[in-house]
Amino acid sequence: KYQQGIRDRAAVRIEGGEILRVEAHPIPEHPRPWRVKDRATLIGDAAGYVTKCSGEGIYFAAKSGRMCAQSIVERTEGGTRMVDDRDLYDYINKFDAKYGPTYIVLDALQKLFYTSDAARESFVDLCEERYVQQVTF
Predict the structure, then answer these.
(1) Quick one: which of 46, 129, 35 has its CA closest to 89?
(2) Per-residue pLDDT at 112
(3) Which parts of the chain are beta strand (E)?
(4) What is the gyration radius of the CA atoms in the chain, in angstroms?
(5) How many CB atoms lie within 10 A of CB 132?
(6) Is the pTM of this model over 0.70?
(7) What's the rounded Cα separation, in Å, for the pair 35 and 32?
(8) How many CB atoms lie within 10 A of CB 11?
């Protein structure tokens, strides 16, 4: 139903177009079990910072990138020392402390509301509420 609506709205713009390649990649639905390896760390979608009920990830990508950069600046002591994996876990711990509960709540909501089409529609309606958006993000 929804895909057909999108196709109908885009029909004029894509008329005569040719499909070159169809690709898909699964969206990570949970923070990765490991997000730090030596002196490298994952942020954003690569770290699994996507809300699986909506696929939203740009907010958490920006937040995790900023938090990671701030941790690196702090832990390098003004550029006088090199970071190691322990330093990068500082960012991971801060991110998990601040946003971990959000993922837990959204996961519970998905388990509750993604049981049928009617339940999914009521969840979408719920997410449109300004209060829900303020509490979630």
Answers:
(1) 35
(2) 84
(3) 36-37, 40-41
(4) 19
(5) 14
(6) no
(7) 6
(8) 9
Q: How many CB atoms lie within 10 A of CB 2?
A: 6
- Neighbouring CB atoms inside 10 A of 69's CB total 12
Greatest Cα-to-Cα distance within the chain, rounded to the nearest angstrom: 59
Query: What was the pLDDT predicted at 137?
Result: 58
**Phi, then psi, of 40 in degrees rounded to 5:** -120, 145
Phi, psi torsion values for 36, nearest 5 degrees:
-130, 135
C-alpha angle with apex 36: 82 to 55, nearest 5 degrees?
Answer: 130
CB < 8 Å & 24+ apart, contacts of 2-11: none
Query: Could you list the mean pLDDT of each consecutive 10-residue stretch along the chain, which spans 137 residues?
Result: 75 82 72 89 91 79 94 91 92 93 83 82 79 70
